[in-house]
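Could someone model zinc ion with this protein?
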Amino acid sequence: MRRLPLVLACWLCVAVGLGCATAAPWPGPVPPAVGADPARVAADVAWLADDAREGRGIGSEGLAAAAAYLAEGFREAGLEPGSPTGPGRAPGDPQARSYLQDFEIPVAIRIAEARLSLGGVAFERGRDFDALLNSADLEGELEVVFAGYGISDEESGWDDYAGLEVEGRAVLVLDARPADDGSPLSGVRGAGFLSRAYKLLNARRHGAAALLLVPSAADVEGLPGGAGAQLANPSTASSGIAAVALSREAATRVLPDLEALQAARDAGAAPAAVRTRARLELAVRVEREQGEVSNVVGVLPGSDPALAGESVVVGAHYDHLGRGEFGSLTPGRRGEIHNGADDNASGSAGLLALARAFAAGPPPRRSLVLVGFTAEEAGLIGSAHYVRQPARGIEDTVAMVNLDMIGRLEDGPLTVFGAETSPRFRSLVEKAAEGAAVEPTFELGANGPSDQTSFHTADVPVLFFFTGTHPQYHTPDDDPERVDAEGTARVLTVVERVTRALLDADERPELVRAAASRSAAPGGGPGYGPYLGTVPAFGGPPVAGVRLSGVTAGSPAERAGLRGGDVIVGYGGAPVRSLEEYAALLFASRAGQRVEITVERDGEQLGFVATLGQRR
Ligand SMILES: [Zn+2]
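Reply:
Sure, complex below.
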């Protein structure tokens, strides 16, 4: 991408109303770098991404070994232990004793039990049926009611539950939407009703005890929705209703006239109050295993008494996908080690190189905090935990620099996200890149899908360095030999210079809260559908609802009065239990709609009304 002249860039930000810092020059020169040794970088990447680390999956020994490796690197470089919590530290004790900030999270999830039979005749698990990972636990006998596509849409008037008695029963629901292209549920808006989270929420809202998800096409083999081979993100929340996937063949055994019922519904006939004569016996139990994981925290205290109380955080996640239990882009290769050399052994090796460089160089005026984040792949969990329990106060954290995938520079540009969060950041990076044979390009994305988001929603200016995606991303082929260590060392020169400048500047950088984000979060980023501007918090103690880590500046959510810390428990009159449900409800709304949102705040339930905007 051609780099735009500065003045034009600012005009562009203003024209499209994006919250962009009015760019200003970084005052004075940027300090030189000690620099990184490409051979050490390559060695650290090779160790962290070795098969022996098993892809550094959540709860694995390989992940724990990687944490110890980072801690040892910090210790060797002369950084102080910085864990705000962890072993040997009494509450309020100012002196950290460890580099490891330990905390508990779900590390594995599995279907512990799933049995289904009809009139005493058992179905075969895996072939005829399987439970979904977000199923609630249930054991009992149920009547089955056919509930079409499981959709209730006020706007179009389509309601599969109209006139049905489903309280305490199992609803059999088609895993699609009405086929008719003329139907008000076709097109992009209707896509919101395809989501399984929406169908579960709507069934629960109507009082059903279980949902049986069935393929809509009569000739489909196997189970819908990847049931039985589900990607097991340990932080998958329960949907609050039993959830089972059935094959079409098994569904026809439950409801012999399924095809006729579906055809009638497609033709617009009212939902037929059809119930099974035989009773369904269902038992489902989902097991979540908790385990200990650690952020790795090292501190280089500042030398200037006036500024040492302030800090700059440089962070990188060191976890990856293990054997592809979830997040893999090659589901067919699950079980293979996803080495994660670029994602993110490269950033972790970068932390070690910076530890060595800063310990060897002149002491900084402010304090430097280096953090290896855990559980980024499961939802920015480690960085969110750090922000809640920081080594140095978040309000005194003057900037956060994130390194995620800096291993594939080759002869491409270095992408820098977040410069819009402080007026002088762009000029600072450009100055730091002078003479480093690195071409920075700038993208909006302070609230993008990596750890800087946890900091920016806590009002910290951020910069995120990234050398670009590639075909090996999130596959078993992201291997050390593909990492361009020499390029990574060049990137680290820029990062070191930027960080030194931030540590030694007289003034702390001014914050500009990013208005438009490329967040993957519902209601946050560009794309289709209504815009609300909430930024969900990841990790932390589980809640029934969606905890917000913040709202985007100038967004409908901010105007309505929502704020970070709120837990959304109701949307448009529907109770909300999880992010998936919230996303489904939001997706099914439309720009300009006034929506009632119920939150829990300081132990109280409060109601707000927001007018949804249009996503750009
Ligand atoms: Zn990553």
